[in-house]
Specification:
Layout: H1 2-27, H2 30-33, E1 38-47, E2 51-60, E3 65-71, E4 77-84, E5 90-95, E6 99-105, E7 107-113, E8 121-127, E9 138-147, E10 151-153
Antiparallel strand pairs: 1-2, 2-9, 3-8, 3-10, 4-7, 4-9, 5-6, 5-8
Length: 161
């Protein structure tokens, strides 16, 4: 019985290792050419015991968007800004239960207070308005400061075979 378990474990391990190599081979180079939005948290810090700060780099292809969720409680203050690393334009919106803030610019500051009419979840959305025929991606740097009790959620990309 013990030999069967060890043999099954060894075979399973070999299959998993071989599968990982095949998966690596299949996905080689896709990250460099992908047009799907991506992000990287450049810095994250706690400011005292009451605030959090995140500095995020966001890359968006033409006609694509990137949305982040921010969960807050009533009367939470949020402050932030964004700018594009190169020339270009971006559409930025903040929505609770309805639209709170909207701009089409290459940089801007934003600030709002969470309130009961807007709910407790806010969506911060960046859109690249460039024509789909253009190959230019925009790179956005966003810094946001929000209460330590708040939570920020980022999208995940699901791999589909």
């Amino acid at each position: 019985m013990t030999k069967r378990i060890i043999t099954a474990f060894a075979v399973l391990s070999l299959l998993l290792m071989a599968g990982c190599d095949d998966l690596t081979e299949l996905t080689r180079g896709t990250t460099e050419t992908s047009s799907s939005p991506g992000f990287e948290i450049l810095r994250g810090a706690e400011i005292g015991s009451e605030w959090k700060m995140n500095q995020i780099q966001i890359v968006i292809g033409p006609q694509d968007e990137f949305a982040t969720l921010l969960r807050l409680t009533k009367n939470d203050n949020v402050d932030g800004y964004f700018y594009l690393e190169q020339s270009g334009n971006v559409t930025f919106e903040i929505e609770g239960d309805s639209l709170i803030y909207q701009t089409s610019d290459s940089s801007n500051r934003f600030s709002f207070v969470a309130g009961a009419p807007q709910g407790n979840t806010y969506v911060l959305t960046f859109r690249n308005p460039a024509a789909e025929s253009e190959t230019t991606q925009i790179v956005i740097i966003m810094e946001i400061i929000y209460p330590a009790t708040g939570e920020m959620f980022f999208p995940v990309e699901v791999w589909e075979p």
